[in-house]
Structure formats: C-alpha cells, structure tokens
Amino acid sequence: MVLPLSGIKVIDFTGVQAGPSCTQMLAWFGADVLKIELPGKGDVTRQQLRDIPGKDGLYFTMLNSNKRSLELNTKTPEGKEILTKLLEQSDMLVENFAPGALERMGFDWDHVHKINPRLIYGTVKGFPENSPYGDLKTYEDIAQSAGGAASTTGLVEGSPLMSGAALGDSNTGMHLLIGLLAALLHREKTGEGQKVYMSMQDAVMNLCRMKLRDQQRLERNGELTEYPQYPHKPFGDTVPRGENASGSGVPGWMLKCKNWKTDPNDYVYVIFQPWGWENVCNVIGKPEWITDPKFATPDARIPHLFDVYAAVEAWTIDKDKHEVVEIMRKYEIPCGPVLTTKELLHDESLRANGSIVAVEHKERGTYYTVGCPPKFSAFTPTITASPLLGEHNEEVLLGLGYSKDQIASLREKKVI
Questions:
Q1: Which residues are catalytic?
Q2: Which class is domain 9-206+346-413?
C-alpha cells in the first residue's frame, strides 16, 4: 500500500498535545516522523496520568503512534551537530516549544532555512506573531479562553466554561497539519520551503467563526433572536452564553429522557427544522400546533420556544435516548443521543470502521485509540504503537554515519 507521505522525513520537536497530534497524523499518512526527546526524560506526557505504574501513559501513546524516538540533548555541541545533519536530509521540522526556546537553541527559522532551503518549518504558539500576549505560555484552557470559546459556553447566568473537546490543542494540531500539507504542495511547485506559523488563538477563533458572525449581527441589531435570552432578557454588547441553543437559525435543545436522574447522559438533542414542524407536532401529540398562530411559523414560535421544548420533553421523559432517536428518525426529525466516552470506546461499529483502533504496545499490551478520522478509498493507515523512549537512538545515528563506538561515546556524554 502506497501512502501519500511515504519518503517524507519529519523532525518532531513537539510535546504534550498540539504538536504531537499534528505529527502523528503525518506519520499515519506515511511520513517518517522522528520524535526528538530529552535524554532520560522524554515527552512529559510519558509520565502524566499513568494508568500502569512505570509504563508510558495513554496521554503519550495516543498521540505518538507510528513515530520513532531519538533521545538528543541539543544544548551540547554534539547534539547540535546531530540535529544539523538531520535537518540537512529532512523535509519538515515541527515544534511547539515555549516562545523563543528554539531561537535560544540556535535553530530559528532563518538558520534552519540556510541549512536546508527546502525544509518546511512548522511552529505552534499560543498567540499570533506580534500579539500583546505573545510571550504567554499557552495551554488548552487558556486557548479556549482567549479564542472566544469560553465566553460563549455555559449557562446564561453562570461563569464561562471549558469545552471537553481539545479546541486549543488537537484542533490547533489539525490546523497546522493543513498548513504543512499546503506548504508541501507549494514546495513541489517552487522548490522552496517555508515557515508555517499556527497559533492556538487563531485555531480556536476559526471554530468560533459563527460567534464572530453573531457579534457583528448584535452590534447592528442589538439582539440575537435565536439565543435563549430573546425576547425575555436584554442583550449586552457582546455575544452571550447560549446554553444548549443550536447556534444557528434553526432552534434546538437538549432534552431529558427517562433515566436522566440516574444516568446523567440520558439526554437527546433535538433540532426543529421549519419544514418538518408538522412531524414534530404529530409525534409529540400536539397536532393543534400545526395551525395554531402561536406555533405555526418559525417566527411565531420564537417567543414560545421553551413551551415547545417543555412539550417535547414531556414526550421524551418516558423513553430512553435510543428509543427517542429510533422514533424520531422515522419522521426525519433531526436528533441525536448524548453518547458517553464509554459508549464510544466500546461501540462495535466504530471499531469495525476504524474509528476506534486496538494497538499492541511493547510494554503495556493492548490499548485503544482514535483511528484516522478521514477515511480514504485508496489507502487505510495502519496504526502502530508509540515508540519507547530512545528506542531508535542507534538506528538513527547509524543512518547518519556514526559508528557504534561513537554512539557509545555520545551515550556516555549524555548527548543521547
């Protein structure tokens, strides 16, 4: 099977999640990804949130499959020499160090570009270049806060809330991946490498695009009719938290099902399309609402949406979420169950189609991870285990022309 990035060599100077999620996908697409790690320590996530004492944590294994690992102290002259040799024969370098770290190491973009003009230099930082926050060390929750997600998430009267989805980390990694692949195509046309700068704030803002849409609508009209505040509460000068509103012109809400008291996830989300209103009314036993002036049209329903939600919930409350979905799908009413992490992990259909994948690890045995999200007709990535720390030290250095004696000397000097 020919993979699209076969033959592409990537130096992976990333850690934790934003960078590794990107370089892992490059590896799934066939690139030879060499993860550079601090000798004796490695990526901090190897030791974080361990479920098996002394073994690499799932945090690391689920973000670093299909890679090789080289321990390298790049603060030493010998380490810098090895990195330079790697750069000379590589196609990409990807890093997500704190601002200025790689520059202090002596391998900023200008220097790397001189070493290898064809090399693509991918970098993840918290904020865009020249941002007043550019020196901040950024994590997931900081990115969600600074990118517009937190201020628009949560209850109307509550504090801002974080999303459980990695909007700041893995989302940024996927945005960087897009940029790197575009730069690779650009190099095919020009022969020249380039720097791809990806900020976590930019990545989060891109997913909050509709909230920026709503900010402009609010500034023009003073209200947002699809938000739960309308028409009962006045709007301020910024997009408010929308609770469980759908975030579009088509209303939707999270509704309780019969086991909600004992199962905090026995809920279903239902969307009310204008062209399917008759079906909704018939299913929930409110056929009179089809012609009732207060409910007959989308605009008429807006002031009474919570009456609609209450009526639908009175119908869902004696059924579990799966029963609700089975009935509503027959009437083409858009709805979906709240699926838990347990349900997803053990879903046989997700395992069958490669969305959840079992991986054999040399030390920890079998673990499960998310498979390659896009599914291709021409190839299917094979997901292999993440590397042990320094597992490929000798293999990489022999490939660079070092002898076994030289490798032993580098080990004694703690270069590797």
A1: 169
A2: alpha beta
